[in-house]
Each structure stands twice: as C-alpha cells, then as structure tokens.
Automatic annotation (TrEMBL):
InterPro entries: NAD(P)-bd_dom_sf (IPR036291), Sc_DH/Rdtase_CS (IPR020904), SDR_fam (IPR002347)
Organism this protein belongs to: Blastococcus colisei
Organism classification: Bacteria, Bacillati, Actinomycetota, Actinomycetes, Geodermatophilales
Keywords, alphabetical: Oxidoreductase
One Pfam family it belongs to: adh_short
Family of this protein: Belongs to the short-chain dehydrogenases/reductases (SDR) family.
Transmembrane segments: none
Molecular function as annotated in GO: oxidoreductase activity
SUPFAM superfamilies assigned: NAD(P)-binding Rossmann-fold domains
GO cellular component, one term: membrane
Name used for this protein in its record: NADP-dependent 3-hydroxy acid dehydrogenase YdfG
Residues annotated as signal peptide: none
Top-level taxon: Bacteria
C-alpha cells in the first residue's frame, strides 16, 4: 500500500484550521505537500519551516488560480498523487438576510472550487493510479451535508452538493484506482465563520478570538490521514457519533425538522447574529 510519506499531496486552505493541521501531519510523515491560501502572510506563518511543504497564494474560487495551483504542483514535483479539498467558508443567518455576494462566494469556494480543482487534478491522479497503484481525493465536507438546518442553509446546500459529487465521482474512477473520500466533521474550532462573514485573517494570536466552538482541527486531520491510507473509498464522520446526522435524511426526522425549525426563525436569527458578532467584532 502506498503511504502518505511517499506521495505528493495538494491541500487547499492550508493557512489555518483543518488544512493547517493536515499539512503539518502529512509533512511530519514525510509527504511532499503543496498548499494554498488567499493571504500570503498567514500562509507563510503556517507552513514556514515545514520540511517538504511549499505554499502558494491562490483562491480556489478563481479559475486562473485553480489552474495555476495544479500547474505549480507539477512544476515542483512532476506528479500528483492525492488532493485534499479543504478550503471552505461558512455564513450563519437566514437566507433572506444573506447578501448575494456572500451566496456566490460560498458556492464558489465550497462547491465549484471542489469540483474544478478535482477536474483539473484528475488526469494526473489517474496517471498516479496507473503507475503507482493508487491515488486519492479527500473532500472535507460536514455533517451539514446530511442534515440541513438553519442558520446554515446555504452552507449546508454546498456540502450536500459535495456529498453528491463525491458519490458520482466514485462511480467514475474507483475501478481505475482512484479512491474518493469525504470527511464530515461536526463543529470544529476554526475561523470558518469569521472568515465567511468577511473578517480578514490576522496573526495566529488574533485568530484565537475568532474561533468557533468545536473539536480540535487535528482530529479531522487524523481522519484525513487515515483516508489517504485506506484500502477503499470512505465516508467518515468526526467524531464518529456525528454520523447520527444521517438520520436527518430519514423521512420521519426530515418532516419533524421541517415543522419544528420553521417555527423558530426569529430565535435562529438572533442566535446566529450573536454568534457572528462574538467572532467578528
């Protein structure tokens, strides 16, 4: 079995949170990693000094940047063995309160970026599978892919889209040696909400006040590492009990959520506003 430390891995969104923890884990195991983020200073702070890691300033929502990113991997290493699609944004609030540009931005990063980076990488992953026995695509999704609830309606829609994309892609490439995984975390202690609401990244010290409540990013990074050595494609919840969110797709639970949550919109709006204000003021 091909181990991560013998491989060239592209990780999107590597300046903070899950992506940063993943890059550090893979570097420790000897992988050659190319990672990206939109802001160079924070990226340098995250990956500087990590052996075998290079950082590229790139926005996965931008078509030219996506192409440049894949080209950069090939220029540096001559091959690509795995892609970890981690870059993502969140926005908390009711749809009617959401600016149109926020909708476009979240869809561009969370869904279009995932599909398009995969499309650009796939010819090289298929070569890796033929020549070296395997290749991997790991998409960082969310339990929101299985149970869509306000105030994360649009975010949930993008993650449900990723879920559908991954299922379809598996049926295209599994027999050709490419494993396709999703890692679906519960709430994670990252800046995803502050960043989605327009707060620019500062230093690591500044970020501490922007973190959402949740599990440590390293736990998600561990699950990503496990996927990269798995013998078959996987769908993983982190922590495992978060897989209960799949019950949200069952008709009785689905109908109950429709009835209960739709009567709580004022409370949901207020709770979302307080959560955002606490992380962006």
């Amino acid at each position: 079995m091909t181990r991560p430390w013998n491989r060239v891995v592209l990780v999107t969104g590597g300046s903070a949170g899950i992506g940063r923890a993943t890059v550090a884990r893979l570097a420790q195991e000897g992988a050659r990693v190319v990672t990206c983020a939109r802001h160079g200073e924070r990226l340098d702070e995250a990956v500087g000094g990590l052996a075998g890691v290079s950082g590229v300033v790139a926005d996965v929502a931008d078509p030219a940047d996506r192409a440049m990113l894949v080209d950069r991997v090939l220029e540096e290493h001559g091959r690509l063995d795995a892609v970890v699609l981690n870059a993502g944004l969140g926005w908390a609030g009711l749809l009617e309160d959401m600016p149109g540009e926020a909708v476009e931005g979240i869809v561009a990063v969370n869904l279009t970026g995932v599909i398009e980076v995969t499309r650009l990488a796939l010819p090289h992953l298929l070569i890796a599978a033929r020549e070296r026995g395997r290749a991997d695509v790991v998409a960082v999704s969310s339990v929101a892919a299985w149970s869509q609830v306000p105030p994360l309606t649009v975010y949930s829609a993008t993650k449900a889209g990723v879920h559908g994309f991954v299922k379809g892609l598996r049926r295209e490439v599994t027999a050709r040696g490419v494993r396709v995984h999703t890692v679906n975390p519960f709430f994670v202690r990252t800046e995803w909400l502050a960043r989605g609401h327009g707060h620019a990244p500062g230093s690591d010290a500044d970020a501490r006040g922007r973190l959402s409540r949740g599990i440590a990013p390293v736990r998600v990074a561990e699950a990503i590492g496990t996927c990269l050595t798995a013998s078959r494609s996987r769908t993983v919840a982190v922590p495992r009990w978060a897989g209960l969110a799949r019950l949200g797709e069952a008709p009785p639970v689905n109908r109950l959520l429709d009835a209960v949550l739709s009567r709580q919109t004022d409370r949901i709006r207020a709770l979302a506003a307080r959560s955002v204000d606490a992380r962006t003021d």
